[in-house]
Protein backbone atom coordinates (compact mmCIF):
# COMPACT_ATOMS: atom_id res chain seq x y z
CA UNK A 1 0.00 0.00 0.00
CA UNK A 2 1.03 3.57 -0.60
CA UNK A 3 2.64 5.46 0.93
CA UNK A 4 5.41 3.07 1.91
CA UNK A 5 5.63 2.64 5.67
CA UNK A 6 9.44 2.74 5.66
CA UNK A 7 12.53 2.92 3.53
CA UNK A 8 12.92 -0.82 4.03
CA UNK A 9 9.48 -1.42 2.50
CA UNK A 10 10.31 0.80 -0.48
CA UNK A 11 13.61 -0.99 -1.02
CA UNK A 12 11.91 -4.37 -0.84
CA UNK A 13 9.34 -3.24 -3.42
CA UNK A 14 12.17 -2.32 -5.81
CA UNK A 15 13.74 -5.72 -5.26
CA UNK A 16 16.83 -4.30 -3.57
CA UNK A 17 18.86 -6.50 -1.21
CA UNK A 18 19.23 -5.05 2.29
CA UNK A 19 22.84 -4.02 1.66
CA UNK A 20 21.99 -1.97 -1.44
CA UNK A 21 19.45 0.42 0.10
CA UNK A 22 22.02 3.17 0.62
CA UNK A 23 23.79 2.65 -2.71
CA UNK A 24 22.24 5.38 -4.87
CA UNK A 25 23.43 3.88 -8.15
CA UNK A 26 21.89 0.50 -7.36
CA UNK A 27 18.67 2.18 -6.24
CA UNK A 28 18.53 4.02 -9.56
CA UNK A 29 19.31 0.86 -11.50
CA UNK A 30 16.46 -1.02 -9.83
CA UNK A 31 14.11 1.92 -10.41
CA UNK A 32 15.04 2.15 -14.08
CA UNK A 33 14.62 -1.58 -14.64
CA UNK A 34 11.12 -1.58 -13.14
CA UNK A 35 10.07 1.62 -14.94
CA UNK A 36 10.91 0.16 -18.32
CA UNK A 37 8.90 -2.96 -17.49
CA UNK A 38 5.73 -1.42 -16.12
CA UNK A 39 5.31 1.88 -17.99
CA UNK A 40 1.65 1.88 -19.14
CA UNK A 41 2.66 2.79 -22.71
CA UNK A 42 4.42 -0.58 -22.85
CA UNK A 43 1.48 -2.44 -21.35
CA UNK A 44 -1.46 -1.43 -23.52
CA UNK A 45 -4.75 -3.27 -23.16
CA UNK A 46 -6.40 -4.87 -20.14
CA UNK A 47 -3.31 -4.49 -17.94
CA UNK A 48 -2.70 -0.81 -18.64
CA UNK A 49 -4.40 0.48 -15.47
CA UNK A 50 -2.49 -1.96 -13.29
CA UNK A 51 0.73 -0.97 -15.02
CA UNK A 52 0.01 2.70 -14.28
CA UNK A 53 -0.52 1.90 -10.59
CA UNK A 54 2.71 -0.07 -10.54
CA UNK A 55 4.58 2.77 -12.25
CA UNK A 56 3.36 5.25 -9.62
CA UNK A 57 4.43 2.86 -6.87
CA UNK A 58 7.88 2.43 -8.41
CA UNK A 59 8.33 6.20 -8.60
CA UNK A 60 7.07 6.64 -5.04
CA UNK A 61 9.56 4.01 -3.88
CA UNK A 62 12.42 5.93 -5.48
CA UNK A 63 11.37 9.17 -3.78
CA UNK A 64 10.92 7.38 -0.45
CA UNK A 65 14.51 6.19 -0.64
CA UNK A 66 16.12 9.34 -2.04
CA UNK A 67 14.07 12.34 -0.84
CA UNK A 68 14.40 13.68 2.69
CA UNK A 69 10.96 13.98 4.37
CA UNK A 70 9.19 12.85 1.20
CA UNK A 71 5.67 14.33 1.16
CA UNK A 72 3.74 11.53 -0.54
CA UNK A 73 0.34 13.23 -0.32
CA UNK A 74 1.52 16.36 -2.09
CA UNK A 75 3.50 14.38 -4.65
CA UNK A 76 0.61 12.05 -5.49
CA UNK A 77 -1.74 14.98 -6.15
CA UNK A 78 0.62 16.45 -8.74
CA UNK A 79 2.31 13.43 -10.32
CA UNK A 80 1.35 12.40 -13.83
CA UNK A 81 3.04 9.64 -15.77
CA UNK A 82 5.04 11.12 -18.67
CA UNK A 83 4.45 9.22 -21.92
CA UNK A 84 7.05 7.23 -23.75
CA UNK A 85 8.05 8.90 -26.99
CA UNK A 86 5.93 8.60 -30.10
CA UNK A 87 7.33 8.46 -33.60
CA UNK A 88 6.69 12.20 -33.82
CA UNK A 89 9.24 12.65 -31.04
CA UNK A 90 11.80 10.55 -32.89
CA UNK A 91 11.15 12.52 -36.08
CA UNK A 92 11.56 15.81 -34.22
CA UNK A 93 14.91 14.72 -32.85
CA UNK A 94 16.07 14.05 -36.40
CA UNK A 95 14.67 17.36 -37.69
CA UNK A 96 16.45 19.24 -34.92
CA UNK A 97 19.77 17.80 -35.99
CA UNK A 98 20.28 14.96 -33.53
CA UNK A 99 22.83 12.43 -34.62
CA UNK A 100 21.38 9.13 -35.90
CA UNK A 101 23.59 7.23 -33.46
CA UNK A 102 22.06 9.27 -30.61
CA UNK A 103 18.54 8.50 -31.75
CA UNK A 104 19.38 4.81 -32.04
CA UNK A 105 20.97 4.77 -28.60
CA UNK A 106 17.99 6.61 -27.11
CA UNK A 107 15.59 4.01 -28.47
CA UNK A 108 17.83 1.23 -27.20
CA UNK A 109 18.00 2.89 -23.78
CA UNK A 110 14.21 3.04 -23.61
CA UNK A 111 13.92 -0.57 -24.64
CA UNK A 112 11.81 0.42 -27.63
CA UNK A 113 11.35 -1.01 -31.09
CA UNK A 114 13.88 -0.22 -33.79
CA UNK A 115 13.19 -0.79 -37.48
CA UNK A 116 15.30 -2.98 -39.70
CA UNK A 117 18.40 -1.05 -40.88
CA UNK A 118 17.26 -1.44 -44.49
CA UNK A 119 13.78 -0.01 -43.80
CA UNK A 120 13.20 2.90 -46.19
CA UNK A 121 15.93 1.64 -48.51
CA UNK A 122 14.58 -1.76 -49.47
CA UNK A 123 10.89 -1.19 -50.15
CA UNK A 124 10.14 -4.88 -49.55
CA UNK A 125 10.89 -4.44 -45.84
CA UNK A 126 7.86 -3.21 -43.85
CA UNK A 127 7.85 -0.91 -40.83
CA UNK A 128 6.93 -3.82 -38.57
CA UNK A 129 10.23 -5.52 -39.40
CA UNK A 130 13.02 -5.37 -36.88
CA UNK A 131 13.61 -6.10 -33.27
CA UNK A 132 15.89 -5.46 -30.36
CA UNK A 133 19.11 -7.25 -31.16
CA UNK A 134 18.63 -9.39 -34.27
CA UNK A 135 16.44 -7.56 -36.80
CA UNK A 136 14.65 -9.61 -39.40
CA UNK A 137 11.89 -8.75 -41.81
CA UNK A 138 10.32 -12.20 -41.42
CA UNK A 139 8.02 -11.16 -38.61
CA UNK A 140 4.26 -10.56 -38.55
CA UNK A 141 2.76 -7.10 -38.73
CA UNK A 142 3.10 -5.64 -35.23
CA UNK A 143 6.32 -7.27 -34.13
CA UNK A 144 6.52 -8.26 -30.48
CA UNK A 145 9.17 -5.56 -30.11
CA UNK A 146 7.02 -2.81 -31.61
CA UNK A 147 6.40 -0.74 -28.48
CA UNK A 148 7.11 2.69 -29.94
CA UNK A 149 3.77 4.37 -30.58
CA UNK A 150 2.79 4.87 -34.20
CA UNK A 151 2.45 8.30 -35.79
CA UNK A 152 -0.63 10.02 -34.46
CA UNK A 153 -0.43 8.47 -30.98
CA UNK A 154 -1.83 11.03 -28.56
CA UNK A 155 0.43 10.05 -25.71
CA UNK A 156 3.14 12.57 -26.62
CA UNK A 157 1.41 15.14 -28.79
CA UNK A 158 -0.94 15.79 -31.66
CA UNK A 159 -1.10 13.59 -34.71
CA UNK A 160 1.30 14.35 -37.50
CA UNK A 161 0.52 14.54 -41.19
CA UNK A 162 3.51 14.95 -43.49
CA UNK A 163 2.52 16.55 -46.79
CA UNK A 164 4.41 16.40 -50.10
CA UNK A 165 6.90 19.25 -50.29
CA UNK A 166 7.03 19.81 -46.51
CA UNK A 167 10.28 21.25 -45.21
CA UNK A 168 11.71 20.53 -41.78
CA UNK A 169 10.50 23.97 -40.70
CA UNK A 170 6.94 23.21 -41.83
CA UNK A 171 6.84 20.02 -39.78
CA UNK A 172 8.42 21.65 -36.73
CA UNK A 173 5.93 24.50 -36.83
CA UNK A 174 2.97 22.09 -36.86
CA UNK A 175 4.34 19.89 -34.10
CA UNK A 176 5.55 22.75 -31.94
CA UNK A 177 9.09 23.73 -31.07
CA UNK A 178 8.55 23.35 -27.33
CA UNK A 179 7.90 19.61 -27.26
CA UNK A 180 9.85 17.81 -24.54
CA UNK A 181 12.11 15.22 -26.13
CA UNK A 182 15.05 13.03 -25.36
CA UNK A 183 16.26 12.58 -21.82
CA UNK A 184 13.99 15.23 -20.32
CA UNK A 185 13.65 15.87 -16.63
CA UNK A 186 10.20 14.28 -16.87
CA UNK A 187 11.72 10.91 -17.81
CA UNK A 188 14.43 10.21 -15.23
CA UNK A 189 14.28 6.47 -15.85
CA UNK A 190 16.06 7.13 -19.15
CA UNK A 191 19.16 8.43 -17.41
CA UNK A 192 19.63 6.25 -14.33
CA UNK A 193 21.16 2.83 -14.02
CA UNK A 194 23.57 3.49 -16.86
CA UNK A 195 24.51 5.99 -19.47
CA UNK A 196 22.03 8.56 -20.74
CA UNK A 197 21.94 11.78 -22.70
CA UNK A 198 22.53 15.23 -21.31
CA UNK A 199 20.59 16.82 -24.17
CA UNK A 200 18.34 15.96 -27.06
CA UNK A 201 20.21 17.34 -30.03
CA UNK A 202 20.00 20.77 -31.55
CA UNK A 203 20.27 22.74 -34.71
CA UNK A 204 23.36 24.87 -33.93
CA UNK A 205 25.69 26.43 -36.46
CA UNK A 206 26.58 24.56 -39.64
CA UNK A 207 29.75 22.54 -39.31
CA UNK A 208 32.70 23.40 -41.53
CA UNK A 209 35.07 20.49 -42.02
CA UNK A 210 38.77 21.19 -41.48
CA UNK A 211 41.28 21.14 -44.32
CA UNK A 212 42.69 17.62 -44.56
CA UNK A 213 45.35 16.04 -46.76
CA UNK A 214 43.63 13.73 -49.26
CA UNK A 215 46.67 14.18 -51.52
CA UNK A 216 48.79 12.16 -49.07
CA UNK A 217 48.79 8.56 -47.95
CA UNK A 218 50.79 6.65 -45.35
CA UNK A 219 53.69 6.13 -47.76
CA UNK A 220 54.11 9.82 -48.60
CA UNK A 221 57.43 11.31 -47.40
CA UNK A 222 55.69 14.02 -45.40
CA UNK A 223 52.95 11.75 -43.98
CA UNK A 224 54.53 11.39 -40.51
CA UNK A 225 55.01 15.13 -40.05
CA UNK A 226 51.49 15.89 -41.28
CA UNK A 227 50.01 13.23 -39.00
CA UNK A 228 51.79 14.81 -36.04
CA UNK A 229 50.52 18.28 -36.97
CA UNK A 230 46.95 17.04 -37.45
CA UNK A 231 47.04 15.24 -34.11
CA UNK A 232 48.22 18.46 -32.39
CA UNK A 233 45.36 20.39 -34.05
CA UNK A 234 42.93 17.69 -32.98
CA UNK A 235 44.06 18.03 -29.36
CA UNK A 236 43.63 21.81 -29.52
CA UNK A 237 40.15 21.44 -31.01
CA UNK A 238 39.25 18.95 -28.27
CA UNK A 239 40.39 21.38 -25.58
CA UNK A 240 38.21 24.02 -27.21
CA UNK A 241 35.23 21.59 -27.15
CA UNK A 242 35.10 21.49 -30.96
CA UNK A 243 34.67 17.74 -30.81
CA UNK A 244 33.50 17.11 -34.37
CA UNK A 245 36.52 19.00 -35.70
CA UNK A 246 38.80 17.15 -33.28
CA UNK A 247 37.39 13.84 -34.50
CA UNK A 248 37.92 14.64 -38.18
CA UNK A 249 41.47 15.87 -37.58
CA UNK A 250 42.25 12.87 -35.42
CA UNK A 251 40.95 10.37 -37.94
CA UNK A 252 43.06 11.99 -40.65
CA UNK A 253 46.13 11.77 -38.41
CA UNK A 254 45.39 8.08 -37.83
CA UNK A 255 44.97 7.49 -41.57
CA UNK A 256 48.38 8.95 -42.29
CA UNK A 257 49.99 7.03 -39.42
CA UNK A 258 48.47 3.53 -39.57
CA UNK A 259 50.85 2.26 -36.90
CA UNK A 260 49.94 4.84 -34.24
CA UNK A 261 47.72 3.60 -31.41
CA UNK A 262 47.97 7.01 -29.69
CA UNK A 263 46.43 8.90 -32.62
CA UNK A 264 43.55 6.42 -32.72
CA UNK A 265 42.91 6.74 -28.99
CA UNK A 266 42.84 10.54 -29.30
CA UNK A 267 40.47 10.37 -32.26
CA UNK A 268 38.30 7.87 -30.37
CA UNK A 269 37.95 10.25 -27.43
CA UNK A 270 36.87 13.03 -29.78
CA UNK A 271 34.39 10.78 -31.59
CA UNK A 272 32.84 9.78 -28.28
CA UNK A 273 32.40 13.42 -27.28
CA UNK A 274 31.02 14.19 -30.75
CA UNK A 275 28.25 11.61 -30.25
CA UNK A 276 29.74 9.03 -32.61
CA UNK A 277 30.19 5.97 -30.39
CA UNK A 278 30.42 3.51 -33.27
CA UNK A 279 33.31 5.45 -34.80
CA UNK A 280 34.87 5.77 -31.35
CA UNK A 281 34.65 2.02 -30.80
CA UNK A 282 36.20 1.20 -34.18
CA UNK A 283 39.15 3.54 -33.61
CA UNK A 284 39.74 2.26 -30.08
CA UNK A 285 39.63 -1.39 -31.15
CA UNK A 286 42.19 -0.61 -33.86
CA UNK A 287 44.39 0.94 -31.16
CA UNK A 288 44.01 -2.17 -28.99
CA UNK A 289 45.07 -4.34 -31.93
CA UNK A 290 48.13 -2.15 -32.53
CA UNK A 291 49.16 -2.08 -28.86
CA UNK A 292 47.39 -4.69 -26.67
CA UNK A 293 49.18 -3.42 -23.56
CA UNK A 294 47.97 0.19 -23.99
CA UNK A 295 45.53 0.63 -21.10
CA UNK A 296 44.00 3.84 -22.45
CA UNK A 297 43.07 2.07 -25.69
CA UNK A 298 41.08 -0.52 -23.73
CA UNK A 299 39.51 2.26 -21.63
CA UNK A 300 38.36 4.13 -24.75
CA UNK A 301 37.03 0.92 -26.29
CA UNK A 302 35.08 0.22 -23.11
CA UNK A 303 33.62 3.74 -22.96
CA UNK A 304 32.59 3.62 -26.61
CA UNK A 305 30.95 0.19 -26.35
CA UNK A 306 29.07 1.29 -23.25
CA UNK A 307 27.88 4.44 -25.03
CA UNK A 308 26.44 2.35 -27.88
CA UNK A 309 24.29 0.68 -25.25
CA UNK A 310 23.41 -2.61 -26.95
CA UNK A 311 23.43 -5.91 -25.11
CA UNK A 312 26.54 -7.20 -26.86
CA UNK A 313 28.46 -3.94 -26.61
CA UNK A 314 27.73 -3.50 -22.90
CA UNK A 315 29.13 -6.98 -22.36
CA UNK A 316 32.23 -5.98 -24.36
CA UNK A 317 32.49 -2.79 -22.30
CA UNK A 318 32.67 -4.80 -19.07
CA UNK A 319 35.46 -6.94 -20.52
CA UNK A 320 37.39 -3.92 -21.80
CA UNK A 321 37.08 -2.01 -18.50
CA UNK A 322 38.35 -5.13 -16.74
CA UNK A 323 41.30 -5.35 -19.14
CA UNK A 324 42.08 -1.65 -18.63
CA UNK A 325 42.15 -2.21 -14.86
CA UNK A 326 44.43 -5.22 -15.27
CA UNK A 327 46.88 -2.95 -17.09
CA UNK A 328 46.36 0.10 -14.84
CA UNK A 329 44.85 -0.93 -11.48
CA UNK A 330 44.79 2.68 -10.24
CA UNK A 331 42.71 4.07 -13.13
CA UNK A 332 39.80 5.93 -11.56
CA UNK A 333 38.07 6.24 -14.94
CA UNK A 334 38.22 2.48 -15.50
CA UNK A 335 36.94 1.74 -11.98
CA UNK A 336 34.03 4.14 -12.39
CA UNK A 337 33.28 2.95 -15.91
CA UNK A 338 33.27 -0.72 -14.95
CA UNK A 339 30.79 -0.06 -12.15
CA UNK A 340 28.59 1.89 -14.57
CA UNK A 341 28.76 -0.90 -17.15
CA UNK A 342 27.85 -3.54 -14.57
CA UNK A 343 24.89 -1.45 -13.42
CA UNK A 344 23.78 -0.96 -17.02
CA UNK A 345 23.95 -4.70 -17.61
CA UNK A 346 21.99 -5.38 -14.43
CA UNK A 347 19.36 -2.75 -15.21
CA UNK A 348 18.91 -3.33 -18.93
CA UNK A 349 19.95 -6.82 -19.95
CA UNK A 350 20.48 -9.26 -17.09
CA UNK A 351 16.93 -10.63 -17.21
CA UNK A 352 16.68 -10.76 -21.01
CA UNK A 353 16.93 -14.20 -22.66
CA UNK A 354 19.82 -14.59 -25.08
CA UNK A 355 20.80 -17.32 -27.48
CA UNK A 356 24.40 -17.12 -26.30
CA UNK A 357 23.64 -17.28 -22.57
Kindly describe this structure.
There is one protein chain. With 357 residues, the protein is mainly alpha-helical. It contains 14 helices and 2 strands; from the N terminus they run ααααααββαααααααα. A two-stranded antiparallel sheet has the order 1-2. α8 runs parallel beside α10, α12 runs parallel beside α14 and α13 runs antiparallel to α14. The two termini are 37 Å apart. Residues 132-159, 177-183 and 191-204 have low confidence and may be disordered.
Average predicted local confidence, pLDDT: 76
Helix percent reads 40-55%
Q: In angstroms, what is the radius of gyration? A: 23 Å
Main beta sheet, described? Answer: 2 strands, antiparallel
**Spans where pLDDT lies below 50 across 5 or more residues:** 132-159, 177-183, 191-204
- Proportion of residues in β-strands: under 5%
Blueprint of the fold:
Blueprint lengths: L6 H7 L10 H15 L9 H19 L5 H7 L8 H9 L4 H10 L4 E2 L14 E2 L36 H8 L47 H17 L3 H14 L4 H13 L3 H14 L4 H14 L2 H17 L4 H17 L9
Helix pairs in contact: 1-3, 2-3, 2-14, 8-9, 8-10, 9-10, 10-11, 10-12, 11-12, 12-13, 12-14, 13-14
Amino acid sequence: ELPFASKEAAAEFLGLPAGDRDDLERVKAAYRRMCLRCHPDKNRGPHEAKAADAFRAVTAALHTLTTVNFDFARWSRNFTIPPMQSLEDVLLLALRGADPDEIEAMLRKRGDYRPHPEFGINLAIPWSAGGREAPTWEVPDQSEFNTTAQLGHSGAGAALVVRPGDTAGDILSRLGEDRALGASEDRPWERVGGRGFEGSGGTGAAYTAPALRPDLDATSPEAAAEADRLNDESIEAFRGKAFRRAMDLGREAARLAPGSAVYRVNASAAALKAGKPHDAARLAVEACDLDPAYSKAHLRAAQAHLAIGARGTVRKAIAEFTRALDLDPESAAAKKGRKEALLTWEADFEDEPSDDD
